[in-house]
Structure formats: C-alpha cells, structure tokens
Amino acid sequence: MTEISKRFGIIGVGGYVAPRHLRAIYDNGGKLVCALDLHDCVGVLDRYFPNAEFFTKQADFIRYAQANHLDFLSICTPNFLHFSHIALALELGANAICEKPLVLRTSELATLQSLESTLSTQAHFARVYGILQLRLHPQILALKQQIHDELALNPTHCYALSLRYISARGKWYHTSWKGDMQKSGGIVCNIGVHLFDMLAFVFGDFMGNTLTYYDDKRASGVASFAHAQVKWLLSIDRDDMDSGKLGTKTSRALRILEETSPPPCDRAALSVDFSSGFEDLHTASYKEILQGRGFDLAAQQQAITIIESITKQALATNTARL
C-alpha cells in the first residue's frame, strides 16, 4: 500500500528561512497544500510546490485550511508572531512546526502547553515542534558523546569555554522587524537561541548568566551550565569576523575552546568549528518530526528560559547597552 503524503500548510513563505522548510517538506515526501504571506512575490513555490494554493490574507488562508485538512502547519513568520500562529495551528487541528525561537517568553510556552493539552482528544492529538537543528549536527552529536564519556570519568568537572558566533548582517537588519527588540527579542534570539540550546544540550542545565555587553550589533556575557562556564560573544558586525575583510565568504564563525586545565582529556580535542554543515539540518529535523522524534514543547524550555533571562538583563539597562 502506498503511504499517503502528509499535508502541509506554511505561513511566512516569502521569508528568509522558508526555502529550507519547503525543501524539508519536499525531501520528506510531504505535500504543500496552501501557503500564506503578506507579500505576493513568492516564486520560491515554483521550485517545490507550484500547485499549492497561495493567500495574502490570513482570513482567506484560515477558511481554506478549515475546509481542507492539514496534518502540519509550518511557521516561518517573525518571532513575535510565532505564539499566535502556533495557537492557530492547534485550533486547526494541525501539528505546528515552528522556527526558532519558538516563543519569546516562558509564559507563552506554558500557555501553549496548556492549549496543546486542551485541544487534543483521544481521536486527534496535535503537537508543537520546534527547530533545534544543532542537536542534529554531526559535530555537535560527536561533541556531546565526547563530553558524556569524559564526565563518566570525572563527574564533577566543569569546563571553562569560549564561544564566538559572528553572522554578519547589512544595514537592512536594523530597519526590519529583526532590529526591533520587542518584536524579535534582539540579537540573542535572532542568532543566539540555537547556540544556547546547544550548550544546554551538551553541557547540562542552564544555571544563570551575567551580561557584560549589549547593543544592537553585539552581545556578550558569561553563562553557567551544569558542567560549563561559557564566555560568549554574539555579533552581526562584519568587523568582528576573523578576517575583517568585506569580501570574506565566511558568514559564520563559532569555536568552543577549553581554556583551563586539567580537563579530563587533551585540551585541543575540545576545539570545535561548525561554521558549515547547516544545509540539510531542516530536512533532518522534519524527518525526525515525521518519525515521531521531533523536539516538542518540553524540549524548548531550556532555550526559552536562557534567552528570556538574557533579554531581561538587557532591557534592565534601559539603553540596552552596558
């Protein structure tokens, strides 16, 4: 018997990250039934699903989705809209697959957990899944196994680490919703949420953070985890790239380095650069979801707690600059 393709809708199909979701749906044998975006220039649909219905008004999209069952609703909208669009998916009886950060506040996460439970029945259980793609990155999985093995030999060890993530952005960034801290959560949410989730995934529960600097281009601090103290820097300033050259091809740079001794292993072995390897992680994330192993609401708790903690510290400075 031929397996029936899962039926997908997508909101925010004209956005930057949407092509990764479209490819993930396509590569996993899904069928995109309908798409929504305020902007009508969405030629990317022709690459994967030219026959998908397209809407520019949410009311029209909702009416269509109500009349045409969706198994999943993929959400690629600005951060501040994630909560309402996830709630919409659940109300439509569809599983939600949402880009990171899933939401901006732990209170919203709790509300979604309640809504997910309330709207579920014995006949139908719609769930919420987030994209935490670094948990599927081969180098991160290898690092997690290495740390697990080392801690088995020295359970009380606390690593002293340095993390840098530079992802250059142009002037457009600051005039878009991404540059509005109330809408995006700021730089920590825009480029840092998956990194902090990765740190908790590898080094254990988040214990706290001390913010040392924050502005609209750069943030830094010291975050504590069960088995690590991490000096971190996030930046969208091209001048912070290792080369500092305008034409550099490297848009991301991240390294994790053991800084103190004696660790339970060779110091050099804990140097990891995973600036690449992101290309297929959305497809891998969708595969996990379709096989019942996706990252659900409970899995999002650490990441949302961390970004909320850092954002509150930044806002407490009034000017968001330390």
TrEMBL record:
<protein>
    <submittedName>
        <fullName>Gfo/Idh/MocA family oxidoreductase</fullName>
    </submittedName>
</protein>
